[in-house]
Amino acid sequence: MTNNRTPARELVEHDVTSLYQHFATTAINIVNEGRECHSQLALVKMDDAEPGKVAHLGFIEPEIVNMLQKSSTTKDFLMLLIADLLAGDKISPSAPFVPDAIVHVSEVWVVTRIGPMPADPQEAERKLSGECDELSDHPDRTEALIINVHTARRSYVGMCPITRSGSERRAQFKPLRQGPTIGRMTLHQDTPHGSH
Predict the structure, then answer these.
(1) 161 pairs with which residues across the strands?
(2) How far apart are CA 91 and CA 79, in angstroms?
(3) Partners of 145 in beta bridges
């Protein structure tokens, strides 16, 4: 039985993979049905007795998630909020559970480059933007669904590309990336976002 008030625990690989596959598949189906995939922030408490099974699930209002993705400043605040929620010490005692993971799903523009990138996420974003004010204006951009599974210790990131043919958009499942992932929208113990 799962104790809903226990602090977030680090998830095993099966938990992370199960969450990623569920949220990625759901988002892909939405895009492939011709609908817009609205940004989501899901708070997840895993079942202690059964790996891969969700015991409790809650969502942050989509309007709030969209507001927190509008600028560099609000994105930084979003990541601090995620870190605080996973720390559990700032969650109201009346909240139904302390999350073990927070899954962030969003449609984004992605620019991929080969070569060294600055360690500072804001500098890296400026480098990728080039002469463009926004990544959405970059000539080498592509659409993708990004699924971040945030835990108290780190973030796992998966990207499912979206292709266009005329007015039709198709998203394709890609496996969760293995290994460390660094960026503005990730948590790590040794970064400001990950230090509680």
Answers:
(1) 144
(2) 16
(3) 107, 160
